[in-house]
């Protein structure tokens, strides 16, 4: 039995970004749940996923970046099936409706008249939630701009030839031959997420059954993401199944690559997802030592401290806005919870589960 936990959507400096379709690409059945907040989508996902897990099936839990207690999706690989919350901000549009994807409308279980009694409050809260997320994203954008200034210091002092040599060396070590299984399949995810309670990640879970783990250390702009992108590209080109984990702050950057066929995970092991070796085969790759001009930290200490503080302050500000927005969303959910007939929701849950049983 194996459980994987990860994020496929994130509150980033580029707004809300998601990679759900990437993780559903090899499924034969996908149930897309529709309905307002508090209508039971996450509960259905949890309940069905736990039932199949308890039967001994592997499951993949896709967590919600805006609520650490909620799930956005579950995948049961053996059944080639999944269930996903297909509502805003990760609206899922079916490519093969009725053949692979199927809409499930939880709206049939709510009492519309009861909701209408609170129409003005629901409209107001909905608008305030949307505004709250946008304010948080603005803080993260400003934080990224500060982080870019920090990166420039190290980029000015990097040995690009040495960085290229080092990357090629690791590609040859990690990918000595082509895949024996066939064409490459790439799945994009997030290493972690910026949530209302701060940064969260599942590195330990994702790497627990990988034999070799490589911890990349370095500063902002020392080439960590560039190295990971080139390793991921080489692995795909050589026909491997590749798990590509993006940065939850800047989705254009990579934080981890896993190729399970080759039994390795290589990842950016710096804050806010800083880890250190705990197993015999764990290994550190220090890009600061390998590629950055000696004494850079000391020479630019004041400038580094200035931009680091500005970046962290904006991150803290954005997380605060996410936390305040969650409080508003919780109030909004409460109106729907009170208006729901959860016996009807249970019936919908059981109908989905019966369809899954046919796939065994």
Fold and architecture overview:
- This protein has about 350 residues and is an alpha/beta fold.
- It has 2 domains: about 5-110 and about 340-360, no CATH class; about 160-290, no CATH class.
- It is about 45% helix and about 20% strand.
- The protein has 11 helices and 16 strands.
- It has a 6-stranded mixed β-sheet, covered by helices on one side. Strands 9-13-14-15-12-16 form a 6-stranded mixed β-sheet.
- α4 runs antiparallel to α10 and α5 runs parallel beside α7 (about 225-235).
- The two termini are about 15 Å apart.
- InterPro entries: P-loop_NTPase.
- This is ATPase.
What percentage of residues falls in helices of 4 or more residues? 40-55%
Strand order of the largest sheet: 1-5-6-7-4-8
Order of helices and strands: EEEHEHEEEEHHHEEEHEHEEEEHHHH
- The coarse silhouette is flat
Low-confidence stretches: none
In whole angstroms, the N-to-C terminal distance is 16 Å
Largest sheet: 6 strands, mixed
Short key terms for the protein model shown above:
360 residues, alpha/beta, 2 domains, 11 helices, 44% helix
Per-chain topology:
Layout: E1 3-7, E2 9-12, E3 15-18, H1 20-24, E4 29-34, H2 41-54, E5 59-63, E6 71-76, E7 81-85, E8 101-105, H3 112-116, H4 119-155, H5 160-174, E9 185-190, E10 192-195, E11 198-201, H6 203-207, E12 212-217, H7 224-237, E13 241-246, E14 254-259, E15 264-268, E16 283-286, H8 287-291, H9 296-299, H10 301-339, H11 342-357
Parallel strand pairs: 1-5, 4-7, 4-8, 9-13, 12-15, 12-16
Antiparallel strand pairs: 2-3, 5-6, 6-7, 10-11, 13-14, 14-15
Helix pairs in contact: 4-10, 5-7
């Amino acid at each position: 039995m194996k459980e994987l936990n990860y994020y496929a959507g994130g509150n980033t400096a580029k707004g809300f970004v998601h990679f759900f379709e990437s993780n559903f690409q090899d499924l034969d059945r996908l149930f897309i749940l529709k309905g307002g907040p508090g209508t039971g989508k996450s509960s259905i996902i949890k309940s069905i996923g736990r039932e199949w897990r308890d039967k001994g099936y592997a499951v993949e839990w896709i967590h919600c970046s805006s609520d650490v207690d909620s799930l956005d999706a579950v995948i049961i690989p053996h059944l080639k099936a999944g269930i996903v919350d297909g509502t805003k901000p990760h609206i899922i549009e079916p490519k093969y409706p009725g053949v692979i994807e199927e809409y499930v409308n939880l709206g049939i279980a709510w009492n519309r008249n009861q909701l209408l009694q609170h129409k003005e409050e629901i409209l107001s809260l909905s608008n305030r939630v949307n505004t709250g997320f946008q304010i948080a994203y603005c803080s993260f954008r400003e934080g990224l701009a500060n982080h870019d200034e920090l990166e420039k210091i190290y980029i000015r002092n990097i040995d690009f030839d040495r960085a290229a040599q080092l990357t090629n060396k690791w590609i040859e070590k990690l990918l000595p031959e082509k895949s024996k299984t066939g064409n490459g399949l790439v799945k994009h995810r997030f290493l972690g997420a910026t949530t209302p309670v701060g940064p969260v990640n599942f590195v330990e879970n994702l790497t627990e059954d990988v034999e070799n783990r490589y911890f990349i250390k370095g500063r902002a702009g020392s080439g960590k993401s560039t190295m990971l992108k080139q390793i991921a590209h080489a692995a795909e080109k050589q026909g491997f199944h590749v798990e590509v984990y993006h940065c939850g702050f800047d989705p254009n950057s990579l934080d981890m690559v896993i190729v399970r066929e080759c039994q390795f995970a290589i990842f950016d092991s710096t804050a806010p997802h800083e880890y250190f070796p705990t197993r015999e085969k764990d290994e550190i790759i220090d890009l600061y030592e390998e590629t950055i001009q000696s004494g850079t930290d000391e020479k630019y200490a004041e400038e580094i401290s200035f931009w680091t503080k500005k970046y962290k302050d904006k991150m803290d500000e954005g997380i605060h806005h996410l936390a305040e927005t969650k409080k508003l969303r919780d109030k909004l959910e409460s109106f729907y919870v009170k208006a729901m007939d959860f016996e009807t929701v249970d019936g919908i849950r059981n109908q989905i589960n019966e369809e899954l049983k046919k796939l065994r």
